[in-house]
Amino acid sequence: MQARQEKIEYENPLLSIKVWQAMRQADLLYGWHHHPECELLLVQSGRLDVEVNGETHVMGEGDVVVLGSSQLHRDRSYGDAQVQYLVLQFDLQAFFDQSTISYLQYFNETKVPLSAMNYLFKENPIARREAAACIAEIYEEARRKEAGYELAVNLLIKKILLVMIRHDKMGLLAGQDRVERIRLRPVLDYVESGITGRVTVEDACRLANMSYYYFVKFFKKSMGISFTEYVNFRKIKTAEQLLLTRDLSVSEVGDRIGMPNMAHFYKMFKRFNHCSPKEFQRKMLAWGEVTQANRQVPAGPDRAGISF
């Protein structure tokens, strides 16, 4: 059977996650599928078997499994009782900023798939409990939508990543070459300082003291994305902030981030947000109104998916 690619829909354009509570009858198989987002599963009751990278993880209450970006996986519920579990899917890149971007390469999966980190949740009860508590809290924050919940979700995602880094006794994540991070630091600073202007790969090569051919390969291997894609990503993130916090036209925003060509700006914006800048503003305004209305109504049980 051909594997299916899932499309993850975010409700909140500024929080690239989807989280929900799933309830399934026993002995049901969910076939092979994949998606660009990373995924964490937390079983609350019953038994769930998750197969990924040639390994089957038998999960019971309190167990956690992590799946990497675009990793092919499937799961099956077993036993007589209904299985209940939380699903958290998120875009890793969206949770790194200038001060933490050097840690992105820990999770870019160029050396090992992220699912290799499941040894940690299986062998280390402290790490498992800490990750499980974060997943459960993210779900509750998403369900209640109290003031500042976006900050809480952002912090909790980062805490999960920190748990994996600090408890990784096999060095699968932290084993990335520190020399690579040191050599790219001036390049990353250059990108941030040049967001409003023209950022060139030639200048980046000179800062890294590398030839063009070696630099583009080195950057992609270290960061998990190409230099051009990284620059566009950082520019569009700045554009999002300007669209929501400044009284500027779309063309003025494009000028502010060094993308005066409107066709190119729209193309890049749609690549990362799946909508135009104007649509992004309207969605955020509508989201803010809905969130404000929800905060005025006591939250009740929610079994549907909550996406951001």
SSE inventory with pairings:
Blueprint: E1 4-5, E2 17-24, E3 29-34, E4 38-45, E5 47-52, E6 55-59, E7 64-67, E8 73-78, E9 83-90, H1 118-123, H2 125-144, H3 149-166, H4 178-193, H5 201-208, H6 212-223, H7 227-245, H8 250-256, H9 262-273, H10 277-295, E10 306-307
Parallel strand pairs: 1-3
Antiparallel strand pairs: 2-9, 2-10, 3-8, 4-7, 4-9, 5-6, 5-8
Helix pairs in contact: 2-3, 4-5
What do you see in this structure?
This protein has 308 residues and is of the alpha+beta class. It is 44% helix and 18% strand. The chain has 10 helices and 10 strands. It has helices at residues 118-123, 125-144, 149-166, 178-193, 201-208, 212-223, 227-245, 250-256, 262-273, 277-295, and strands spanning 4-5, 17-24, 29-34, 38-45, 47-52, 55-59, 64-67, 73-78, 83-90, 306-307. It has a 5-stranded mixed β-sheet, with no helix packed on it. The protein has a 5-stranded antiparallel β-sheet with strand order 7-4-9-2-10. A hairpin with a 2-residue loop joins strand 5 (47-52) and strand 6. Helix 2 runs antiparallel to helix 3 (149-166) and helix 4 packs across helix 5. The longest helix is centred in the middle third of the chain and has 20 residues, at 125-144. The radius of gyration is 21 Å and the shape is globular. The model is unreliable at 298-304 (pLDDT under 50).
